[in-house]
Amino acid sequence: MSSKENRQLHLNLFVTPVGHHEAAWRHPDTDVDQLLDFSFFQRLAAKAEAAKLDSIFLADRVATSPSAVQYGAIGGYEPLTLLSALAVVTKRIGLIATVSTSFNEPFNLARRFASLDHLSGGRAGWNIITSGTDAEARNFNLEQIPEHAERYERAREFLDIAVKLWDSWERDALIRDKESGIYADHHKVHELNHKGKYFSVKGPLNVSRSPQGRPVLVQAGSSQDGRQFAAEHAEAIFTAQQSFDEARAFYGDIKRRAAKAGRSPGHITILPGICPIIGRTEEEAREKEAKLVELSNPAYSLIMLSNRVGFDLTGYPLDGPMPQLPVKEVRGHQSRTNLIVELAQRENLTLRQLLNRLAGGRGHRTVTGTPTQIADMLEHWFAEGAADGFNIMPQLMAGGLEDFLELVVPELQRRGLFRTEYTGTTLRDHYGLPYPENQFAVKPASQAHY
Amino acid sequence: MSSKENRQLHLNLFVTPVGHHEAAWRHPDTDVDQLLDFSFFQRLAAKAEAAKLDSIFLADRVATSPSAVQYGAIGGYEPLTLLSALAVVTKRIGLIATVSTSFNEPFNLARRFASLDHLSGGRAGWNIITSGTDAEARNFNLEQIPEHAERYERAREFLDIAVKLWDSWERDALIRDKESGIYADHHKVHELNHKGKYFSVKGPLNVSRSPQGRPVLVQAGSSQDGRQFAAEHAEAIFTAQQSFDEARAFYGDIKRRAAKAGRSPGHITILPGICPIIGRTEEEAREKEAKLVELSNPAYSLIMLSNRVGFDLTGYPLDGPMPQLPVKEVRGHQSRTNLIVELAQRENLTLRQLLNRLAGGRGHRTVTGTPTQIADMLEHWFAEGAADGFNIMPQLMAGGLEDFLELVVPELQRRGLFRTEYTGTTLRDHYGLPYPENQFAVKPASQAHY
Ligand SMILES: Cc1cc2nc3c(=O)[nH]c(=O)nc-3n(C[C@H](O)[C@H](O)[C@H](O)COP(=O)(O)O)c2cc1C
Ligand SMILES: Cc1cc2nc3c(=O)[nH]c(=O)nc-3n(C[C@H](O)[C@H](O)[C@H](O)COP(=O)(O)O)c2cc1C
């Protein structure tokens, strides 16, 4: 990491059962049974591991609707369930699950991630989200999603408690002396006695300290609240960036905020999302892209976009402009909504054009081209301060993932930009992150003076 | 099931990493690493499956304390995490996880069990508990565990919602027609729009209908509230019964309540817990028992008993009588507390004697003997209306489990009391339970008239 030549990029695979393009399930090569076929996910994880990727990642949303499932390939596994199963059929690759702080209790969450970290030998990561839609709130006793700032405030308290729970067992608390009958050193197992605005949690956790101490903390919010939260707490950041300039500005902003918060900027890995369509020739790639556009269904895309921006767009003419959203603070997914509105305005897109632009990656950067073209783009962003690595989001899983792993990854390896072997065993190792200090541990006297 | 000769008993294995005896971890044969060693659980599940057991089961509690971990082998996996992993390395055996209705949200729970049911091909079961200790409440924003009746009221509403969520996708809702782009028939995916005393949940679930329709519903409360709840909703019942007479009375009571509630008594499998210590001779068995008593630690047993009865017994003289518990409604684990108090009074036990009686199975029936003696006891309870099968709780996992599977199960098979092959693939098949009707499904006109 120290010399510039040795700096290597990180690759996360954003897993969906059929692909990131909204129409991926309709593609002739797609097997729709994949949604609930564990052996498919097992093969996929094995391939990603063989290519030495840092991690695989599952997104999450806690609602759907009859109108969404009419067109969309929805209804698969809850992420931690699937990753728990994948943990025991993989060896090295990291396993990142999304769980919302708005609809869970810290004790339950801390426990499940500690369990996954044990089960996987230290490969768990948590994508911390606050959720952003009323549909989700309505499955959890609310009428409306709480205000943006309030969600992040709850997220801060939630994370503080979770970290304390992970710290509640010191690393060397276990004694397990059969002779004396002492199982653990009770001075090294701590109550929290947390009483805050949103939660009261006594602790300790009922899972002993896991291999990584705590899961790798991942965050994906890009609003002001989201950036500040990420800069203070996240160890990896997913982000949707349309252009190199925007990505570089975001990258610089996060690293500066991190430094200001007293953190080492090298301990935050920034991973913009890339949705590739890869062909051996440019023409082949364009044909694949055209096929997906042809299979797209604007009725479905409109529902998805409406959910995303929190405003009902169905009924608006497809060949007219994107309507003005009512002027108010965006309550839901703030930065993504802004990105979409800006994209439509900047390029003066009709609603239909906008839908096509979003269909492949919901606002993430889409790229269509040859392996070399794609590797060039990744290298450019990486070398010029716009990324520490990438969140790979194949538009089509069948074929699209293999194309990336078999054609682009080797090219990155040839360029010396990506590992050819794992050097560590934990997800922290892969991302070059330190083992976390324990806030409850008393330093030995000899160390305490330095 | 129809003729008496063909009636066979059911066997569930109550899994703990080291054994049900409080001192099991201190036994020379025990490997304490087992708590977090997945390969141990995998071997254990494989053995239970090879013996054709109906299911394995994990209990749960959402709290611990520094004083408990000082002596007790505590700090292992969260149950659904472990069972998700076991689902993909087993083929036939049922997987029952305990989750509390007092500290979870119905949407999250319904989703995780639907996911596990998909992952396992229809082998999920849910042990529905309401939890019973203040220590647990204090990890979830409360000072005290809610009143007994209130917990069961919440449990009823919780279960009602969970079942509706599992029913929210009809069995034939998936269309997945690539040509038309219709993924699901939106008339067969239902919102709940539930608004109740404890919860508001809109639905539908975001997991499609699972192989069993819903997990097998298991319950283990034996208070009046618990019995009534079980009789109305449970498909299998775990229960602690000290004697044949008590077990038979309980069995009759539940079956009568079930009939009164309009259910078929054959669709509720009653499984008293049995904690065996098995020797090839009676003497060998007694020696094993003595060894465990010798390893017991009254200080730890007192903490555990105090937790269980919700009253601090530490400091009371071990060789005096069990102190009177303050006369008030038992808020926590009602029936177990009563069982313990009655046992101490009936047999006039000192505190130390009581602790030894409880150390092997916390109030479950302990039996020490030869395979034949144990098989005799099981047959007696089964044939004479006290049980439909048993919840097997080996006091020692190392050795104790194998003894049961290799010595007692074959004896039960020889007597024609237990299957020698699985005849179905789902947990419902093993327990002879029907596939559940869907409350949202409209019956075709031709059927609706009958
Ligand atoms: C790669 C990536 C993955 C995301 N995954 C999820 C997810 O699974 N669930 C979710 O609700 N939001 C997800 N988000 C959205 C973010 O959590 C966040 O709400 C969004 O970026 C807007 O953040 P902001 O409100 O701070 O601007 C994801 C974002 C990115 C960039
Ligand atoms: C075999 C068995 C397993 C149980 N597992 C749990 C458990 O995992 N967690 C828990 O809190 N209670 C558990 N219980 C306790 C019951 O859920 C219930 O609280 C207890 O039997 C008292 O019920 P009552 O209050 O209705 O009398 C279990 C009981 C039995 C018989």
Automatic annotation (TrEMBL), chains A, B:
Annotated residues for binding of FMN: D60, T98, H148, Y152, S222, S223
Keywords from the named record: Flavoprotein, FMN, Monooxygenase, Oxidoreductase
Transmembrane regions listed in the UniProt entry: none
SUPFAM superfamilies from the UniProt entry: Bacterial luciferase-like
Organism classification: Bacteria, Bacillati, Bacillota, Bacilli, Bacillales
Xref: CDD domains: Nitrilotriacetate_monoxgenase (cd01095)
Protein name per UniProt: LLM class flavin-dependent oxidoreductase
Luciferase-like domain: residues covered: 33-384
Keyword Flavoprotein: yes
Pfam families reported in the protein's UniProt record: Bac_luciferase (PF00296)
Recorded GO MF terms: monooxygenase activity; oxidoreductase activity, acting on paired donors, with incorporation or reduction of molecular oxygen
Similarity remark: Belongs to the NtaA/SnaA/DszA monooxygenase family.
InterPro entries: Diverse_substr_monoxygenases (IPR051260), Luciferase-like_dom (IPR011251), Luciferase-like_sf (IPR036661), NTA_MOA (IPR016215)
